[in-house]
Amino acid sequence: MRPVLAIPPFPGARLPAFALPGGDGLGDADTLLAALARHRVGGCYWGQAIAGPAVLTAANWPADADPWALLDKAELVVLPAEDPRTLLALAAGVPLELAGGEAVDRSALVRAHLTGWAWRDPFSGDAISAVQAIELAGFWRQLIDSNRGITAALGFAYWKRPTVAPLLWNGLEAPFQRGMPVLADGDRVAVWRSRLSAAQVRALGNRPVLEVEDGFLRSAGLGADCVPPLSISVDGDGVHFDPTRPSGIERLLQEGVFPADLVERAAALRQAIVAAGLSKYERGTVAALPRPGGARRHVLVPGQVEDDRAVTSGGALPSNLELLRRARAEAGPDAFLIYKPHPDVLAGHRKGMIAPTDMAALADQVETAASMAALIAMVDELHVNSSLAGFEALLRDKPVTVHGVPFYAGWGLTTDRGPVPPRRTARRTLDELVAAAYLLYPRYLDPETGLPCPAEVLVQRLTAAAPALDAKASAVIAVRRTAGRVRRLLGR
Fold this sequence. Notes:
This protein is an alpha/beta fold and 492 residues long. 36% of the residues lie in helices and 14% in strands. This is Capsule biosynthesis protein.
């Protein structure tokens, strides 16, 4: 007998054990079959949907096709009892006959292919129930289904592809392209827009695309250092940092429903992130920093990359210098202003340096060593342009004044100085914002198994240790850092 569930063969994944012999055989058959049908998992559930015959048999049922698409049109299934797809026929409500004329025993088939197996969490190795295994397979199916129809992925740097490929996989080949493929009507294209060539931009024209960007828990290192992302967002509406048009996360926050169990999950995740000192690029220390300004009100002003799309897309102040000026004007002369340059700017990779004389005139301290999480924990409030640091400060119950229009502005949680779009009328709690930003909007990759994973798994991995880089990635990082030092020495 074989188990009904398997882990999809995501590109580059190291598939751990999912089912082992020796399950207890317990569980309500009807409940489990309903769960299989609800999540449409079992068999090759990552396969492509094809048309099939009205009567499905072992001889005419392709093993690599999505079984649920075939069952949707089937009128009868005839299989031997040892075939786990018998369970799928029962779950789909399609009449089932067992080869050889055996009587159909629902409970026996459920034991043989589902509850008679000991299911394991592939991320931790811990025992899980059959229902939990079905739900995890459903999580993978939902991701794969969201990628159906993606025939091309453009603008993805080679060092990002190994971690992005599983998150864009649609059951076929990873669709990365160097040039511009011929596209048919209905083809979906995923793009990393900032790296598209001029020819690709012209060829795409007004075709709707899926915009891919780093997620909000990205990695334990900088993108400019070529550290690959462990989280991405894939947005068919817009992009989260562009307020001139709706985005997927804005729609979630404006129109979404947040059940109590989702909000509770978000609260637990928020607490884990804060306790571990995590931010987008860092595994920070949680040790308390001294307050250099004593009893004065401490205000953190995080810089950004000035030519980044998060700054140039609309609504944000054009420069770090202007942000620092406005923060000083609003905070007043008695506040102790701490300016933290963006790490990509500090590394010499990107635009955004402020002249030392200007920094000295406006900031009481320029901080380059302490982690963002530790700084946020120490200060009293933040002034940001459109930096994600403002969102990370909200997680830590810090007041945030926003001078641009990031995704987290306009929901009643920030003091907004930027031109928030009037379409943002909903009011959200902090944990509803967390649920949208960390649980519903992005996708995550487990660096240990190479499998798409829930947010909690990546938080655990980043908390435990920095993900290891292969030798090629480490060499690229060394070259990039050397280039950054040269740019700084040349004053660029």
